[in-house]
Design goal:
The protein has one domain: Immunoglobulin-like (Sandwich), CATH 2.60.40. The protein is built from 2 helices and 11 strands. Strands 1-11-10-6-7 form a 5-stranded mixed β-sheet, with no helix packed on it. Strands 2-3-4-9 form a 4-stranded antiparallel β-sheet, with no helix packed on it. The radius of gyration is 21 Å and the shape is globular. It starts with a helix and ends with a helix.
Length: 165
Amino acid sequence: MKMKATIALLGLAILSVSCSNKKEIRVVSLGEKAEIGGLVYQAIDTHWPMTLGERTPKERFFVIRISIRNAGGSDATIPAFELLDDADNSFPESADGAGVEKWLGMSRKLANGASEQGDILFDVPPKHYRLRVADENDTNFMYVDIPLNLTKEDPSRTKSDTFAK
């Protein structure tokens, strides 16, 4: 009987340790700082332009203005970004930043203590998203909650264009 009780207690101990080892994925709101590894991200603003120069999207262009600071002890590579919708569908950032004035590009390195601000581009259907941000090794990550806000469309459009029809 003692043996069964010992095995049961051992099983519960293992189960409780394995459950406590699960990482809780952190989420911050748009505008808040997301610190992961030695990198500090801050998604500052979003907009949904209808076009980018002569380019038209497959779905809809979505531009996120982001600031990144390297607070780590060495130079860092910034991993690619992705969006996740509420159904956990993943959408990678666009590798073509043509028409985005302050595009950050795809090959991003930051020296220790340096900061950079610019835009990342997606071609996605308009909806609520979470922006995945990761440490310099892309092993740990967290999310920035990005609410749907279609009032920030292409700045060249006027109010009458926005509310027409």
